[in-house]
Design a protein that fits this description.
This protein is mainly alpha-helical. The chain has one domain (2-136): Four Helix Bundle (Hemerythrin (Met), subunit A) (Up-down Bundle), CATH 1.20.120. It has nine helices and two strands; from the N terminus they run H-H-H-H-H-E-E-H-H-H-H. It has helices at residues 2-18, 37-55, 60-63, 76-91, 94-98, 110-131, 140-150, 154-159, 175-182; strands at residues 100-103, 106-109. The radius of gyration is 16 Å and the shape is globular. The model has no long low-confidence stretch (mean pLDDT 95).
Length: 187
């Protein structure tokens, strides 16, 4: 169930975030040369803060720009815990997973929207780990989930400028290496 995948992914992200040394917040992130580690974490927190209102029936217009800017404040770990706890509560309601959600990219079921955001979060867990020199290994279930979700979306995201060009890897590359390559990252 997607709720279990979310729990595992949230735990993995939080473990890396808890390891972030104070001196790394302003360093360039592993995923985007224009983002610092703080920008990366703020992005993941922001994505998670959007999930509950949208899957509970609010529109993008209802949320407005209430989730813009710095959402981390003085305690990024507390900001993450608050956001992920709200998501965990909201995704337990079956009606939220089957509700239609209007996104800027079109209409999705709540479960499809969650899968996209969750897959992005999984990749950003690797990005955060690589940025702070933490363990970049991810559980196979998360890698498989993200790969299944993102493979059909990769070219559209690439066309939108969200991903760089894919990286060539050997056919026998491991699942994480192949996923990262699909998304323009090198393991």
């Amino acid at each position: 169930m997607i709720e279990n995948v979310y729990e595992t992914a949230a735990s993995e992200f939080e473990a890396r975030l808890a390891q972030a040394p104070a001196g790394h917040w302003d360093t360039t992130s592993a995923c985007c040369p224009d983002w610092t580690v703080r920008d990366l974490v703020n992005h993941v927190v922001s994505e998670n803060r959007w999930i509950p209102p949208l899957i509970e029936g609010s529109t993008i217009a209802d949320v407005g720009d209430s989730l813009s800017g710095d959402l981390l404040g003085d305690d990024p770990l507390a900001a993450w815990r608050h956001a992920s706890s709200a998501v965990a509560s909201s995704i337990r309601a079956p009606e939220n997973m089957s509700r239609s959600v209007e996104l800027s990219s079109g209409t999705r079921l709540g479960s499809e929207y969650l899968a996209e955001v969750l897959s992005d979060q999984i990749i950003h867990t690797w990005d955060l780990a690589a940025s702070i020199d933490a363990d970049t290994n991810l559980p196979a279930e998360l890698v498989d989930f993200a790969r299944a979700t993102l493979t059909p979306l990769a070219e559209a995201w690439r066309s939108a400028g969200v991903l760089g060009p894919p990286v060539e890897v050997p056919a026998d590359a491991g699942a994480l290496t192949a996923l990262l390559a699909l998304l323009g990252r090198r393991a």
